Amino acid sequence: MRVLGIDCGGEYTGYGIVEQDGLGTLQHVCSGAIRLPPRQALELRLLKICQGLTEVIAGHSPEVVAIEDVFYAVNAKSALKLGHVRGVAMMTAAQAGLAVVAYSPLSIKSAVVGYGRAEKSQVQLMVARLLRLPEPPEPPDVADALAIAICHLHTAATLQRQAAPSR
What we know:
Blueprint: E1 2-7, E2 12-20, E3 26-35, H1 42-60, E4 64-68, H2 76-95, E5 99-103, H3 105-112, H4 120-130, H5 140-163
Parallel strand pairs: 1-4, 4-5
Antiparallel strand pairs: 1-2, 2-3
C-alpha cells in the first residue's frame, strides 16, 4: 500500500509518501514541503498547495491520503487558516479520486513514537529510524507528514489482521 501523508500548515504544508510491502517493510518514496509565502494572498497560497499536491499525486500514484484530524487551537484566526489549507488538501485528494482518512495528533504520535505526547524532535527521529533515512526530515512538517502516512499504514495493517478469519 502507498500512502500520501499531508501535514497542513500555514507556513509549510508537508507531504510524504510511504509504501509498505507484503512483509510490512516501510519504504520512503518521496517527501517535501510546500512553502507558503506569508505575505502572499490567501487564495494564492491555497492555489499553490493544490498545484503542489496535484503534482505529487500525479507523479507518485498514492492509493490513499492521510491527514491530521481537526484539533482545537487557541487562536481562532490561525485555526481558520489551517482549516482552509486542510480543505484544499482534502479537495485535491478527492479530485484525484483518492479516499481521505484523518487521525488525531495523539494517534499519530502513538503509532510512530509510542507516546501520544511526544515532542516534534522525537517524531523526527523515529520517522528517520523507521524509514531508514540518513537524517531526520526537515522542516518538521515533512516528518509530521511521513508520520501521518506511517500511522495509516500501521492502522490499516492492524485492521487487516483483525479482519482475517481465524483457523
